[in-house]
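Same chain as my last thread, 321 residues:
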Amino acid sequence: MSVLVFVENWDGRFKKLSFELVTYASKVAEMLGSEITAVSIGKVEDAELSKLASYGASKIISIENEQFAVLDNQNYTSAIADVAKKENAGVVILSNNNTGKAIAPRIAVRLQAGLGAGVSRLPLSVDPFVVYKKVFSGNAFANLSIKSEVKVLTLAQNSFEVIEKPMPVIIEKARVETADNKTIVKDTQKQSGKILLTDADIVVSGGRGMKSPDNWSPLVELAGILGAATACSRPVSDEGWRGHEEHTGQTGKIIAPNLYFAIGISGATQHLAGVSGSKYIVAINTDKDAPIFEAAQYGIVGDALKVLPKLVEAFREVKGK
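reply #2:
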């Protein structure tokens, strides 16, 4: 039983998320006594593909058909499912990001497989196959038993440490025939000059504790010093203080940065559901009993408008900016 992992690329480049997936797949393969195959869709140079071997991939299948120039859920599903069958994959692993959430259930149907969505640890056992996942917006966990012959898993972002495990690798170019593309892209507009929330390693986020949209300058300044993206809670975007594209939470963007600053955010369940995947959370709030402190690794009890300028000054000194 082999392990197949789908690694997404961004303009022909892999990110930490891709290496995290390969590392996780490598560990699952060890538990099963098998090897892993990574499948990449889209134009990626061999030098970039070879980076996956540093984290345990012994075989890489690169699919570069023109049909895959545009992300089409049906085509991607068909391609990955076909490769899984040819490789006799018993476990298929994807990221629990927007792409993974869209195609993993489709792949599970194609392969008649059980689906473990949003797992965040290695399987507790492989016989029976039991995985761990957070439930109820991260307030509880469940041990999910998957009894089907083939298993499809999506890995929660930032939930597994990236570990190098260099392997000799075989890169195989493949053409996968699919139905005509159903998705047509007429225009592409890319945001420039600003770090995207979903790509950011560091996010600086503000809530109603910022008191007014006029007080946002030091928060933006801190983000600039740290090379971070800016975000906000839902009440802030609803009030029009910040754009809805910055809204994080259960009804906004789900993110999992390495470091998340929650400034003037109380930590409602809906907000925490969108940021609980963060590796470290730093909270600043005047209320010492605010729920955000229960989720945070580091906390400062104080007025954000007084604490922020001091943080900006301290980081400027450290960064030499």
